[in-house]
């Protein structure tokens, strides 16, 4: 599998990009627009050394009530440029018109599957465009990035254990299952909240997330109300669920963290993050019987978990929100089975969430 991750919104690219109605943020960290105005910024063409089959964008932004952030992508192949595809319209506020993916985008070049651009034939380059729309207070974009990939792994995957064996991070354990049947308007209820529950665990690990006044609206009898808050503020009103990868990233970034989606190629790469004390939210898929000890006995086509460490033999230690209670969230999975479920299931998709300035491990292009 080939992966190319790019932070499109570097200071130099912000200066070089095409902009209309956009201005530098007052603190110098990003771009914004004037109150009541709208503006767009178009990034440079990015050309990985391979044909792009899939692309997922990430953004970190401050979006006060009424403000909107819309991210689009355009692809290019020899002699041809695609149309612009919307990868998401986002605001932190609970606004069904504004926090939504955009369905119905498919043509001969590509299709958008909720948060992911899937090319019909490999693209040679892409560029991103962001449009900021302000209400009384303007939005500010701090990060715009994308992970382009090609060649998902098939069959058996087995990396050898690395340096993080025996390291386990103290990530709080939250179970989505304790919310079963609650707030069904948010994607069918808590039993479907694997993504926001995983995001909430990582936020808590970093000592971040919503404060009690933020989730005062949650039923007082509901456990872990911050998980309900995450579900509400990651809910994609077009998709009808809380599993939009980009929206979970934007939610985490709302609390001052740096966050992005990328794809890793093996657990050896995941170990590098754990070695730097950074947990990862990983997207997996497993049929019945393919992952020993998996709480979803019937299997799943898509599920989010938190990789919190590695046992002495290299087996991944995982906080699996599908567990029946917080006390049973911690799991140790077979390394080969988990790697197959993760790399084979989602192409190694992860949320990387960490405080600003936190050093990431050395990379060869995946982050």
TrEMBL record:
InterPro entries: Peptidase_C39-like (IPR039564), Peptidase_C39_single_dom (IPR039563)
A Pfam short name: Peptidase_C39_2
Residues covered by the Peptidase C39-like domain: 169-322
Domain of life: Bacteria
CDD domains: Peptidase_C39A (cd02549)
The name this protein goes by in its record: Peptidase C39-like family
Organism from which the protein derives: Gaiella occulta
